[in-house]
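Notes continue from the previous slide.

Worked example: a multi-chain complex. Inputs as given:
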Amino acid sequence: MDRIFRALADATRRDILRRTLSGEASVSQLAAAYDMSFAAVQKHVAVLEGAGLVTKHPQGRERVVRGNPETIERAKSLLDRYEQIWRARIDRLDALLADTTERQ
Amino acid sequence: MDRIFRALADATRRDILRRTLSGEASVSQLAAAYDMSFAAVQKHVAVLEGAGLVTKHPQGRERVVRGNPETIERAKSLLDRYEQIWRARIDRLDALLADTTERQ
DNA sequence: CTAACGTACAACCAAATGGTTGTAGATGAT
DNA sequence: ATCATCTACAACCATTTGGTTGTACGTTAG
């Protein structure tokens, strides 16, 4: 999880993720889209790959990058659980209030 | 968004978030739960607060920390959009395939 | 075959992160 | 009034991060 959220905590990487979800792209194609060195983009892709948000597939001399929706789903599930925890607390408070009201 | 995901990219902070979503807690109560200095936990809370994942409310000499589900929802929405982008691509591919099949 | 392209990786640097200790100001309890 | 508690914040440190340049290597094109 650390690596997933850390990978998402950068605008360039989120943009790379967006692009590669919408359609495959080679590393150099991605690099052309940003105002930074090829190596920098390569590192961003590596971070995304390390988090499992993206996969690389050799195709001739290129490496095609593909976004991976499963990992996004994992992150979303965690956030969902947090929202559930919060709702459970509100429900407890509501129940308590109902109980108090009832006794009056 | 950077700050939200960056705040979530740490197990201690995610745990603090979980606790404060489930029920309010003062900074010192939180600090007691982890094997690190009070100041370290204080910094983690500050990062969460900076991301809007948590709010602090003075109550006497204590600062009560409360998890904020709205910001979690914002993060979830972004991830949702990414999944939609991916699904849109799959739909396009499906449509293309259907078209090709049809012509044969 | 040779030249150009796409990628990988190392070395380096500045800035940010995650931790520490120490000091000081409010507030509450005795 | 004094003492203990809770918090804030600064200074410091090691490590990680996000960027750079340079070099090397496999693959494709001419």
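Summary box: Residues 2-103 of chain B form a domain with the Arc Repressor Mutant, subunit A fold (CATH 1.10.10.10). Residues 68 and 100 of chain B are 49 Å apart (CA to CA).
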